[in-house]
Amino acid sequence: MDTAEVILSVLVVVIIIVSLLSNILVLICFLYNPEIRKQVPGLFNLNLTFCNLLLTVSNMPLTLVGLVSKAQPGGDGFCQIVGFLETFLSTNSMLSMAALSIDRWIAVVFPLRYHSKMRHKDAAFVLGYTWAHSMSFSTVATSLSWVGYHRLYASCTLSNPRASSRTQFVIFTVFFHSFTFLLSFVVLCVTYLKVLKVARFHCKRIDVITMQTLVLLVDIHPSVRQRCLEEQKRRRQRATRKISTFIGTFMLCFAPYVITRIVELFPAVPINPHWGIVSKCLTYSKAACDPFVYSLLRHQYKKTCTDIMNRLLKRSSLNASGRRHDNQGNSLPTAE
């Protein structure tokens, strides 16, 4: 293994550890807090967490094995199963992010009608579509033997070693990425940009009210006035930063891999093997980023994590004090 392969192997290990711990933490918060379970976005987050966890334990370790050994991990049948899972889970996770963006759009643009437009049965219907959509592409690819070990990515994924079906594979690949990556990206852009527009409109209204109040309060201290103006600026930047994070992480993690898969369809264009692994690592890194982007950095999840930690620390302190009490009782001399 050269230096680049060693660095990539370490990167895969780090991604596996972070993804496993962060997604398990999201799952624990979901099970611990009944308020999170009652909310409709919690179902989408649960589905996304399930896909990320399964991808972490099934595909990432085998990519690490393929990268280290430079050989296919397991037999052809086993690799086809893993490739089926990779296609299904990556598609399902992209569509889950699109579903979360639609949920946010309805909540912000139609706040008074949100509970009638997005109920639990509506969320179940959307999740049913994401599963059917993901299952259809995965089943077609597996049934046509377009899933196998790909040396460029050191992974069991979409691959076509037969030259006889190259045209059909090219059509399928373009169609697949158009209705997974491109569709999800368009939905994210349309919904989140509309959310940003509404957020900026509300920020302007709040700014107008704030400025009118500051004008009326002529005796207000200059430092208080300055803090109000700084809060206005932070409020405007907060919405833009969140929307940029949602769309930016999606593009940064998925776009290089999808573009590489499209470029790969042209045999005359050479692709560096290290770049193939890098693009695959970027897609895996999305599973490690999602828990923070969609869950753990939100106030509700932070509070839940804090409650869990306090409960564990309280229980451990009670157990420690109980053991000390027992030890003191055993050390007392007994009466003759």
UniProtKB/TrEMBL annotation:
Orphan receptor. Displays a significant level of constitutive activity. Its effect is mediated by G(s)-alpha protein that stimulate adenylate cyclase, resulting in an elevation of intracellular cAMP. InterPro entries: GPC_Orphan_Receptors, GPCR_Rhodpsn, GPCR_Rhodpsn_7TM, GPR26/78-like. It is a multi-pass membrane protein. The keyword Transmembrane applies. It is found in: Cell membrane. One of its GO terms (molecular function) is G protein-coupled receptor activity. This is G-protein coupled receptor 26. One of its GO terms (biological process) is adenylate cyclase-activating G protein-coupled receptor signaling pathway. Residues 22-294 form the G-protein coupled receptors family 1 profile domain. Its main location: membrane. The chain crosses the membrane at residues 6-32, 44-68, 124-149, 169-195, 243-263. It comes from Larimichthys crocea. One of its GO terms (cellular component) is plasma membrane. Keywords: Cell membrane, Disulfide bond, G-protein coupled receptor, Membrane, Receptor, Transducer, Transmembrane, Transmembrane helix. Pfam families: 7tm_1.
